[in-house]
Amino acid sequence: MLKVTNxxxxxxxxxxxxxxxLEVRRGELFGLLGPNGAGKTTTIRTVLxxxxxxxxxxxxxxxxxxxxxxxxxxxLPEERGLYRKSKIINTILYFAALKGIPTRExxxxxxxxxxxxxxxxxxxxxxxxxxxxxxxxxQLICSLIHRPQLLILDEPFSGLDPVxxxxxxxxxxxxxxxxxxxxxxxxxxxxxxxxxxxxCLINKGREVLGGALxxxxxxxxxxxxxxxxxxxxxxxxxxGFVKRADVYQNYAELELTDIGKSSELLSSVNNKLALRKFExxxxxxxxxxxxxxxxPTESRKAIPPPPAPAPKPVASVAGDPRVRKALxxxxxxxxxxxxxxxxxxxxxxxxxxxxxxxxxxxLASIFQYVRMRRNVEKDLLKKSLEGEKA
Length: 390
What we know:
The chain is α/β, with parallel strands linked by helices. The protein has 11 helices and 13 strands.
């Protein structure tokens, strides 16, 4: 159904996808996995012809993407893509029309899906009136209403409560039984583990793990031990033959360097914890994910708090009466100086002494104005700080 070969996509200096290949057949649930920023969404958008690849080949049903291909694909983006002011039923009918489904055919289908998602009585409400989980259900209906052959879901379980997650799971399994090819990207490893036939794990734009989930688990052996207990299990991280430990309040998943050490582990644990369960199992997909992608080598540095904004005066300096008075004084003396200079210019013997005295007076007024302005700024700043402390 979908075949991607050596896909490559660059953005300026960043290689978002580098040589990724995958194949999804009809009637298959395929998991596209990876940490944040790994290139999953870029891969999806390239497959959907939203952005153009810089290399590689993408075919759907053995053909390259053409405009008609849109009508056989259903796509659920991670971000909300709904018109918040529109009514729910109108939104669904609009998306159906984009896929070539006439209103008379789409309306009964929309009502069936709304009923299945327990939204039948909400059809004439606006999208913005719904909770995030119900908006997610509407968006799912928009991606399903035209009966796609290829369904691509980016974080489909986001915002759904456990009951609706089960409902979506049942729908996906039903679609798979009808030979729909389903690709979904999610961070919920337990959903992938329960649903997917095959996976592709991307890290830093490159495929690092792929194939049948059952085979991948066999490859990673059975060196994992699951424990359920009561007590403090933090000491499990420091056991010498424990290679990796995911320890929670009453549960732990351990990867041993040698599975033969499991009896020794059981003996040491029995003395410290009240065990409810101890079993040797295949590693979970979550532990494989962490093992392949790796944990951060350094703990994240604390983000320093943003610098406190410089306190602002509680009032305008220019509006202070003291500053205005000093400024008026400067203006009057300048005006007098100009008039006197004009008067002396028409005299036969102008008095330069008088002019010089007035110039000194103007300079003194300007100095007084500048000093007054600084004093007022200090006063206002002091009041501002006192107000913040209060």
